[in-house]
Amino acid sequence: MDSLREREDHQELNIGIDGNLNIDNLVDDKVKFNFDIEKDSNGTVLGREEQLGDKDMAPMAGNSIHRSSSRPQLDLSGAAIQGNFEEKDPTILLPNQSDDISHLALDIGGSLIKLVYFSRHENHPFNDRRRKIIKARLGIINFNRRSFPILGGRLHFVKFETSKINECLDFIYSKQLHRGGMDSRSWQSEGPNTENTVIKATGGGAYKFADLFKERLGISIEKEDEMNCLVSGANFLLKAIRHEAFTHMEGRKEFVQIDSNDLFPYLLVNIGSGVSIIKVDGDGVFERVSGTNVGGGTYWGLGKLLTKCKSFDELLELSQRGDNRTIDMLVGDIYGGMDYSKIGLSASTIASSFGKTISENKEIEDYRPEDISLSLLRMISYNIGQISYLNALRFGLKRIFFGGFFIRGHAYTMDTISFAVHFWSKGQAQAMFLRHEGFLGALGAFLSYEKHGLDDLMVHQFVERFPMGAPYIGGNVHGPPLGDLNEKISWMEKFVLKGTEITAPVPMLPPGTTGLGGFEVPSSKGDSLRPDASKLNVGVLHLVPSLEVFPLLADPKIYEPNTIDLSDHGELEYWFTVLSEHMSDLVDKAVASEGGTDDAKRRGDAFARAFSAHLARLMEEPAAYGKLGLANLLELREECLREFHFHDAYRSIKQRENEASLAVLPDLLMELDGMNEESRLLTLIEGVLAANIFDWGSRACVDLYHKGTIIEIYRMSRDKMQRPWRVDDFDIFKERMFGSAEKKPHKYKRALLFVDNSGADVVLGMLPLARELLRRGTEVVLVANSLPALNDVTAMELPEIVAEAAKHCDILRGAAEAGGLLVDAMINIQDSPRESSLSVPLMVVENGCGSPCIDLRQVSSELAAAAKDADLVVLEGMGRALHTNFNAKFKCDALKLAMVKNQRLAAKLINGNIYDCVCRFEPAS
Ligand SMILES: CC(C)(COP(=O)(O)O)[C@@H](O)C(=O)NCCC(=O)O
Ligand SMILES: [Mn+2]
């Protein structure tokens, strides 16, 4: 079979096929891999199990024929041009390529093994033809200017206890990570050879277990320097991940925005079994300035001896219920309950860790394990905090980043370290923590593969997501992501049976306060911290190399997409309730969209459980997945739906509404054409606002839809349009368009219209507005979602809607032809991109997201390209113009249009009522 073909050893990335094809020419959208589907001799697609056979356990290495080298390479064997050879950028199939980026790296520490692996994104369906037209139209030569291709993919983070190394080996084997691809389907069941495969690893275990890896998996370990890896991992995270670093004081977590140009120097304290203290001055420029042998291993080791705990997590969990005053000697114990205020020590300050046990005539059994664990934790955390501070002082450093698995996202540990740093530095130095704290070394090892291509990635190109399974790593579930859909569903079912209590929302405790020398009662522990909380910290990092910052943002550095701050507990609770109440309706729609089968019902059920679990988790710790805004919650819902293979829950509703609206469009256009320019503009804006009422994400609107037909509701909404609207800048916009006694009329060159919902919203609202702009000589770019979200129209669906509308309107037809939106015109446009029509073009671009909101730091390359010549941005709808971007400032004129379909938001944002409207016009800033 094809996929049995050997890979070439030592094949460099830039070796060409027959000397002509240089890999530099392969950009992401031109390389196609076909390893997703394996067929048997009858052409039947094999299931995962059939392909894997009984291979989930790693066998002893045997004879095999597959070879690969340590370098991440493209396997060019069997490469062939697909399709038309005459095409300028033909697709090249690499049938034997499994993944073009290095895929697995390890950090094998004394206590834990950390794994980082990369998996390629599944191809998501996109309109290739539309993309080609847009590329030609916008003059995009190359979406990706790298010297070699980076495909989108995911970085996964998994850990195992070193003492259970066999579980780790089984995991690697079951996912076939040692073979150059995470998807076993690309390999034959006969057991390909891994003889020459080399996997990068760091940590002492890279030496200690090298033979075991060879024996069990047939792979060699290439050792990478541990300090080097820690530093490059930390630098990478601090530069590439937006919400990576945070402070943690008195139970309050706050993300710190790190300016990658102002990162160095800093102190990196890695708390593993032991502690390394490293002064970092740049990429690859560092010095290990100190360390201590009292670290995570000490806590665990002593804790194990003293409490009989079986695991680190159990020990940490015990500390949650501990009271260290029964064990530690406090200042007050020495001073008869008084403070030693002369030297600034309160009575509650620990004078001597474990000191109280000297004078008491007790045996170990007489102390509570909980108290012992807490005393130990405080002793070690304070000590590390103090040594770190002294080193920061020694080198004049203000920022200390703490990493390593000792911390485990444990609030109390972080508070204790922060307190120590704050206390000793008198507030001059700041302790910061990293969300991927435990994976610095493994990430560094991953980055040490040559040509991994991740060096110059920007912050916005990594998007953190939480596919199901990711939040529940640990124990027997090694998580992210659970292999296939079935696994995910059954895991959700099992999870709910076992742990229903954690799916229920848990109220968050208000942060406690502590006095000087505080922590008499740990402020961050208590009933609200679930035992598994420490495992729920990092998700899968999605690498989307084609995302860019929207070029028209006035100042991307201060841009904040979210309008509503969910760190306000009242807000979080409200939106949590809204989303929970919407759940059953959404599940019904999702299940119906998949034919209402038993399988769809089971998936619907699993989705509801998964999303509820995420919500519960976020209620408990809003910053668990990074800084939380309403847009993230709404996106999480869409992501969860996709996880359970609901790709378009509102498909039929959208279709129905499109058809009904297209049927009345000709009448509307006729009515508009009978008006003078000024009344027409007003009617058009009114039309956009009125049609925005068709929003299946709003509870109030959905209730309304039971009361009439689409057209009745649209009419009712239009009839209620009374000016002044709650935010009403229409006159300023009108003056900008038509001029006044003092000002000349303005003709926009190119307008970007961020469209929202299907049906009336786009057909009767935004398309007529687009038509008016086209009529006035403005190029129009309709910007729509890349993936479905609620009833939002997508960039895939829009060309068809425009084509339908164009049947009734010459302006739209001419512009759509010029923009390549009409099928016949698409063929012409490839030959002569610019001159095919006299009309200004109407184009469609995708925005790069699949959510009702938009974060303009992460838009598609085609939108970024379209923005180049644009001088007007129109944002439409509640998600795009209110929940997000209400306060966004642009380099060009901006018009924000929305109907507010939620009472609380109306009251909060515009001091108004549900169904009030916003027409905000902001000249270029
Ligand atoms: C999800 C939405 C932002 C979509 O609104 P749109 O952008 O389509 O105008 C909106 O429906 C919403 O905020 N819904 C939740 C609140 C509610 O049910 O009232
Ligand atoms: Mn919408």
Automatic annotation (TrEMBL):
This is Pantothenate kinase 2. GO terms for biological process: coenzyme A biosynthetic process. Residues 601-909 form the Damage-control phosphatase ARMT1-like metal-binding domain. Pathway: Cofactor biosynthesis; coenzyme A biosynthesis; CoA from (R)-pantothenate: step 1/5. Its EC number is 2.7.1.33. GO terms for cellular component: cytosol; nucleus. GO terms for molecular function: ATP binding; hydrolase activity; metal ion binding; pantothenate kinase activity. Its cofactor is Ni(2+); Mn(2+). Keywords: ATP-binding, Coenzyme A biosynthesis, Hydrolase, Kinase, Manganese, Metal-binding, Nickel, Nucleotide-binding, Transferase. It comes from Perilla frutescens var. hirtella (Perilla citriodora). Belongs to the type II pantothenate kinase family. In the N-terminal section; belongs to the type II pantothenate kinase family. It catalyses: (R)-4'-phosphopantothenate + H2O = (R)-pantothenate + phosphate; (R)-4'-phosphopantetheine sulfonate + H2O = (R)-pantetheine sulfonate + phosphate; (R)-pantothenate + ATP = (R)-4'-phosphopantothenate + ADP + H(+); (R)-4'-phosphopantetheine + H2O = (R)-pantetheine + phosphate. The keyword DNA-binding does not apply. The keyword Calcium does not apply. Catalyzes the phosphorylation of pantothenate the first step in CoA biosynthesis. May play a role in the physiological regulation of the intracellular CoA concentration. Functionally redudant with PANK1. The phosphatase activity shows preference for normal or oxidatively damaged intermediates of 4'-phosphopantetheine, which provides strong indirect evidence that the phosphatase activity pre-empts damage in the CoA pathway. Hydrolyzing excess 4'-phosphopantetheine could constitute a directed overflow mechanism to prevent its oxidation to the S-sulfonate, sulfonate, or other forms.
